[in-house]
Amino acid sequence: MADSVELIEALDRRVKRRDERREFFRHALSVGTLAAGGVAAMGFSTAARAQTAAPSDSDILNLALNLEYLEAQFYVYAVRGEGLPAAQLTGTGRQGAVTGGRKANLTDRTVIQYAREIAEDEVAHVAALRSALGNAAVAQPAINISGAADGPFTAAALAAGIDLSASGGVFDPYANDDNFLLGAYIFEDVGVTAYQGAAPLISNVDIVDAAAGILAAEAFHAGIIRSALYARGVATPVLRTNADRISDARDLLDGNRASAAGSLPTIVADDDQGISPMTVNGQVQANIVPTDSTGRTFSRTSEQVHNIVYLTRNQATSGGFFPNGTNNPNAALTRSGAN
Q1: What's this model's pTM, rounded to 2 decimal places?
Q2: d(CA 139, CA 202)
Q3: Which UniProt keywords apply (predicted)?
């Protein structure tokens, strides 16, 4: 009983923090700061607008394309044992290779079919974004999706506090079904929050429509991965625990504001929820969708997304899954924040 009361109190505190955050934005909008807030939300402060141009639609789409390269390569390698075709990797900026991808040792028929569907969608997303960008599309940057001891998946697992003693200190997302789902979980929620953060900044209505369609697909993917982990966690509770730890690590990495002076606060602690069931008003419920008290999910800025994929709380221009950084003609959209 005491545990349930403590959990309910913790949830109440989380709701209070989110209510305070929403009130901040309501006030900001009421005094006409939407334009300034939109610029700040991508890591720009109002004070810096004179020196730094707001991101263009193509800048924002190229930010999304970098993430789609990463997701597509992970899933395609896991399903097929090979990456995207060479014709889908060219563009402006420095083109890089993929390190460490391989076919996953998947045995659960349901997980295999999930992986196949998501892989096909991610390949289509890369093609769609490249088509929309035309000659402005950036090349695939160097991507590291290695499951080795010195790879980013192991680094992410260690940062999350996942016990790797049984695997010799290595987290290999291609080793089995459970590891694959946890590896996918690292990416999926980030992709959804990245699209949600970027979509309001796009000015072209047709591009907004396309981005919204991809956002919806990414949200379905995240729901698939979260649901699979939740269900498999009934028999193997450590799966839920490890997913929760990954969520906590992402919260620590992305901090609570963009690094530029004067930026609006965007993320509060515990927005990035795990998947363990919650007790609310004495009733146990699932937590597949990480929503606030209004039933809405949250967004991340470009900097916060880079904090996670670079696996750093510091301001940086490379690291983690992108050893040489992401590609974008707008350099502000290639850096992580100082958290």
Answers
A1: 0.81
A2: 21
A3: Membrane, Transmembrane, Transmembrane helix
